[in-house]
Amino acid sequence: MNYSMEGAETERLLFRKLSRDDFDAWLPFHEDPRSSKFWSGIPQNPIAACSQQFDRVFERYQKGLGVMFALTDKTSDKLVGLCGLLIQVVDGQEELEIGYSVLPTHWGKGFASEAAQKCKETAFKNGWANRLISIIHIDNEPSKKVALKNGMHLEKRTVYKNNPVYIFRIDL
């Protein structure tokens, strides 16, 4: 299953496949040090970090492991973020995660919450999962707020990819 959000829409956003042409539009995410301040293991060089992320996205497309989709503003057609449903293994258990990232110029506008809610609704409506998680660094307050607004509750604290994280969960 690919958990595709392609073509999904919210009031302000359109989900579409990420393409290599989006690289320059997404690069400012990695150029802003606030974007990666919570997560270790990301290359310091913004171009290397962006390349690594794009490589992972396209590998996920190929392997059907769920993927982050480009979020574009329906009014301007500009890229505002990435969001999608991702197969993750947390503490030895396979989970379906709602992942989201928004360009710093669009922080605080509700785009992450809007996109995450659409992912939740789509996953449950299509029967893709009975429960969903979000993996959030313990110090990332804005992402915690998005998870809570999406109806999730804090399930546990654990370590994921050498980072201290909270697992937020919502059940169908």
UniProtKB/TrEMBL annotation:
Transmembrane segments: none annotated. Pfam families: Acetyltransf_3 (PF13302). Residues 13-172 form the N-acetyltransferase domain. CDD domains: NAT_SF (cd04301). It comes from the Bacteria. PANTHER family: GNAT FAMILY, PUTATIVE (AFU_ORTHOLOGUE AFUA_3G00765)-RELATED-RELATED, N-ACETYLTRANSFERASE DOMAIN-CONTAINING PROTEIN. This is GNAT family N-acetyltransferase. It comes from Maribacter flavus.
